[in-house]
Amino acid sequence: MDHAADAHRTDLMTITRHVLNEQTKHPESRGDFTILLSHIVLGCKFVCSAVNKAGLAKLIGLAGETNVQGEEQKKLDVLSNEVFINALVSSGRTCILVSEEDEEATFVEPSKRGKYCVVFDPLDGSSNIDCGVSIGTIFGIYLIKDGDEPKLEDVLQPGKNMLAAGYCMYGSSCTFVLSTGGGVNGFTLDPSLGEFILTHPDIKIPKKGKIYSVNEGNAKNWDGPTAKYVEKCKFPTDGSASKSLRYIGSMVADVHRTLLYGGVFLYPADKKSPNGKLRVLYEVFPMSFLMEQAGGQAFTGKQRALDLVPEKIHDRSPIFLGSYDDVEEIKALYAAEEQK
Description:
The protein contains 8 helices and 17 strands. By secondary structure, the protein is of the alpha+beta class. Strand 11, helix 5 (224-234) and strand 12 (244-245) form a beta-alpha-beta unit. Helix 3 runs antiparallel to helix 4 (75-90) and helix 5 (224-234) packs across helix 8. The mean pLDDT is 92.
């Protein structure tokens, strides 16, 4: 990428322009989806600004409450959650919101109701705020099934029914990665313009990667196939080079690296967390959606991740996602285990 030339480009593809271009491909579109996305983007800009000055604004530290997952809530978590709830409700295009921070789903009042359900984790990896590690927002969008009154079942759909998914990463730069079902595009916030500019068009994950990403501290509790796969990454028996281990502990950052460089990100089930640790609706589904759209795969240890049907809004699942060939290897190990 020629950054010097980019600095002088005058024909910028902003995220708004990109989404409007996509909209023209659907003549029946009324622009509701575009309006909803612009509200999500605004929420991300607000949170990005808050994250950048968190240390100065005394937003770092605990808010004194514990959220539904039993994690102590950071002040920034609470703020981010409020920002997104307000942005999504005020768009007038949503009917049900599911947030990692709220025990119950939020049903939008009838006067502000639309036809979309949004599931989101307002600030993923927030325990990393104090040490400056990248954190982010993850979201997925569903269309409600036909009917007047929105019901919780409208959200408890398999991930393959999602219309769009994405994340915004607040790191050395603010990056917004989005798929509306026709590939994956990455945008970077230009602070001088206050606009997200298309910097990573049509992201494709390499077919095979050289990196594996997992919390090895849980190794003693892993099942056989996970332990075998990680052993194979470190001590390959076919004469190939070992894979490198990279684990940040912030899902958005780990998945972002996996998407760009290839490899595999895994958070398996173990004896301590038999259903895995990551939440299905607003972590596993959006990231799996993006991976598949970029040419990768996502697998739970039993099935394709996007085929899962959640029973409750905060259900958890194991997840293996990344380069197509790498996930294929993991699937083969689980298949072999099944046959024993």
